[in-house]
């Protein structure tokens, strides 16, 4: 079993006069095909006036992950990093980073996706951003 921090960002499309995004980071203990334990979840909103670039995505992910009190490799979908080769994405992070490979990593990313999307939708409704 190993520790990972699965991440997902929802909202990388324009809404009103900017980009309202929510990043979710989920610290889990995983085996090859199961999420064995959820250690911690962090949700963090971000607002940008212009479309996020890959360096912005790295900053958003790192700002969210630094609030996780567990260690682990950051795992994301390749599309979240604008389909950059893994070595390029890895070189941009201060912590260990990789693209998802195993079923458990996929499941953890799906969990992060549901959390980020639901949190963003709730915040947009509550803050009357739409």
TrEMBL record:
Highest rank taxon of the organism: Archaea
InterPro entries: UCP021940 (IPR014514)
Protein name, entry field: DUF2209 domain-containing protein
Organism in which the protein naturally occurs: Methanohalobium evestigatum (strain ATCC BAA-1072 / DSM 3721 / NBRC 107634 / OCM 161 / Z-7303)
Source species taxonomy: Archaea, Methanobacteriati, Methanobacteriota, Stenosarchaea group, Methanomicrobia
